[in-house]
Design brief:
It is built from seven helices and seven strands; from the N terminus they run H-E-H-H-E-E-E-H-E-H-E-E-H-H. By secondary structure, it is α/β, with parallel strands linked by helices. It has one domain (15-210): Uracil-DNA Glycosylase, subunit E. It has a five-stranded mixed sheet, with helices on both faces. The protein is globular and about 50 Å long. The two termini are 25 Å apart.
């Protein structure tokens, strides 16, 4: 089993993200402002992979999908189907805990305009490789959005052309694990009607049945 060590808060690998971090520390000195560590147990059967920390979400609180709209949709669904305990209050110290699911990001540092470059996603992929290798009970990946979908496939050395991203799609992987796709739970997707809480709940409900199959 590979040991997983998340990137340090002051991860130096991506110059543009480092510069953005420095600027954010000046503009938002009370924010976490660092590479965000994953949330949830290493022995989880499900790994939710998001895009990157939001400026005033995980970058502020230091916990994935905590402090911005995307987390409200995500954690409501996880709670509804038994993947969490406690009350989600959008604070890292709210006592909310995940059960049999872990939440991480394809890119660990907040990018300008919420858009990491392909080079930044590629540079950060090494941490996802290590994390997945260390999760010995992992059965199901839940990718939130195309960038996450692509990051998981790259991590597993699988061809993008063989696994087309589509909301609600369930892909059987060669090693027996499953890759499930969903549109990202971003405010933009919800406000434009691309994704609703019910649509996302349906995906998580499907995972809750698959994980025990």
């Amino acid at each position: 089993m590979m040991h997983f060590t998340p990137p340090p808060a002051d991860c130096p690998l991506c110059p543009r993200l480092v510069a953005f971090r420095v600027a954010n520390r000046a503009n938002f000195p009370h924010f976490y402002n660092g590479a965000v560590k994953p949330f949830g147990p290493m022995d989880a059967a499900v790994l939710v992979v998001g895009l990157a920390p939001g400026l005033k979400g995980a970058n502020a609180t230091g916990r994935p999908f905590t402090g911005d709209f995307a987390g409200v949709i995500l954690y409501a669904a996880l709670s509804k189907f038994g993947f969490a305990t406690g009350n989600f209050d959008a604070r890292a110290d709210d006592g909310f805990a995940l059960v049999n699911v872990r939440v991480t990001n394809a890119v660990r540092c907040v990018p300008p305009e919420n858009k990491p470059t392909p080079q930044e996603a590629s540079m950060c992929n090494q941490f996802l490789v290590q994390e997945i290798a260390a999760m010995t009970k992992l059965k199901i990946f839940l990718s939130l959005g195309l960038t996450s979908h692509q990051a998981v496939l790259k991590t597993l050395k699988l061809r993008q052309a063989d696994y087309k991203f589509a909301h609600g799609a369930v892909h059987a992987l060669p090693d027996g694990r499953l890759l499930v796709d969903s549109y990202h739970t971003s405010r933009y997707n919800v406000q434009t009607g691309r994704l609703t809480q019910d649509m996302f709940n349906a995906v998580v409900e499907k995972i809750s049945t698959l994980v025990t199959a």
